[in-house]
Amino acid sequence: MSAAALGAAMLGLPRRAAAADVDAEAGGKRTWRFDFGPGEVARGATQVTAETAYTPELGYGFDDTATLTEADRGGDDPLRGDFVSTESSATFLVDLEPGDYRITLISGDPAGPTDIAVTAEEIEKIPPTEAEAGEVLELEFDLALVSGRLGLTVTGTAAHLNAVEIEALPARRRGRRPTLYLLGDSTMQTYDPYWMPQAGWGQFFDRFLSDRVLVDNRSIGGRSSRSFLNQGRLDEVLRLVRPGDYVYVQFGHNDATYTVPDRYTPPEDFREYLRTYIEGTRQRGGEAIVVTPVSRRDFDADTGRFRVSFPEYVEAARSIADELDAPLVDLSASSRAFLDELGPEGAREVFLHAEAGVYPNRPNGVEDDTHFQEYGAIQMARLVGRGTAELGLRISDHVMVHRSSGAPRAVDGLELVRASASTLEVSWPASEDADTYRVHLGRAGEEPTFVGATAGTEAAVHFLEEAADYEVRVSAQNEHGEGPQGQVLAVSTSQA
């Protein structure tokens, strides 16, 4: 909205910003408008000066007026001619009901430069922006407000506030199908094929759900409950959530990394950040499901039993879910029980462990006791599915977790897709009850060795000798273990 349009639209502003005093405007819009500075007040706007301090009775104002100055440059435009400024930082507060809002700021000085950045609810919404004397910046952004008080923090060497308009956005209606938003870290995220065999459990969660729901995995590596929020990622999701949607929240791994300041979140703060996720989702008609931090490959060497990973964060997640009566999937407990059944050595196939040369993108091999390979990610997704089924929610009826009775059968029907001088590509039909497949290859007449795993039904083996004869076998694997290797496929690489 232009400054002129904003000025022309400034009609019907209540004296206070309190939500109860908002006047309904044409089209049912609810709008709050403020004109900053000591000069003439735009028609219908509420004046805010450098001395306007917030009080609960007023419902708006600055939290601290100590750094504020004001100026009136005159002219015939009450929005552009005067303003309130800070040369460091100032926060303007407005009491509002939780909801989604569009916020427009007018910033400029007819006689001097402008340097301003805007943060709202701990999120940088407007990065540092400059303007020359006489220029007016028109800054607009949307925000999902969770608390009952909007805080707009402006920073800069010449941060001017000329006007602010806050428009309540319309509530969203229930979608045709519920969407499940997955919010978490690298143990949950979806990976591109380049990262094979690394995977997150959110990548495979839809395997255990009906096609009557949608899955939107927003998880991303290196994020904590705090940094995910501060980067605006929760805000993006809350501005999409519709009534009937679900938001799965699993953090803790990065919250505990005290050596990384922008991630670290003490357990007591972690608990309160989860409160924001839960309440923000509920305010928009959705349901937040708290997931306790998934276990790492961390065990007692004497007993072989797995330890609770990040116990303070597990307890904080359980505690806030209990306080707010929020659904809880205790993945910490279920994943640890699953790993105890496998034992420390068996758990290597769950986590990102591979010998040198098995995967081209990891030529030196890898030993990672935090992240999963595809087999492990699928097992964790299955555990979350089972946990969801036990919650008794509407989404529970969409969980489809087949309980197999044992390891999969042998995989037969292998076919050669392509052969080159150094690469063989093979495919096979899907095997019932299989989660992943393990490919074994050897020179003709020799015992085959493991050369890679995949959740799909085809694989490529690289760096082979040219004009050589090989034998390929494939076995299937599920939560009960690995089944027998199937029929042999005799193949040969070509001559270079």
TrEMBL record:
The UniProt record lists the keyword Ribosomal protein: no
Position of the signal peptide: 1-19
Domain named Fibronectin type-III: residues: 407-496
Record key words, sorted: Carbohydrate metabolism, Glycosidase, Hydrolase, Polysaccharide degradation, Signal
Keyword hit for Signal: yes
InterPro entries xrefs: AGA-YXIM_GBD, FN3_dom, FN3_sf, Galactose-bd-like_sf, Ig-like_fold, RhgT-like, SGNH_hydro, SGNH_hydro_sf
GO molecular function: hydrolase activity, acting on glycosyl bonds
Pfam families, sorted: AGA-YXIM_GBD, fn3, Lipase_GDSL_2
A biological process from GO: polysaccharide catabolic process
Domain of life: Bacteria
CDD domains tied to this protein: FN3 (cd00063), Rhamnogalacturan_acetylesterase_like (cd01821)
Family the UniProt entry places it in: Belongs to the 'GDSL' lipolytic enzyme family.
Descriptive protein name: Fibronectin type III domain-containing protein
Organism: Candidatus Brachybacterium intestinipullorum
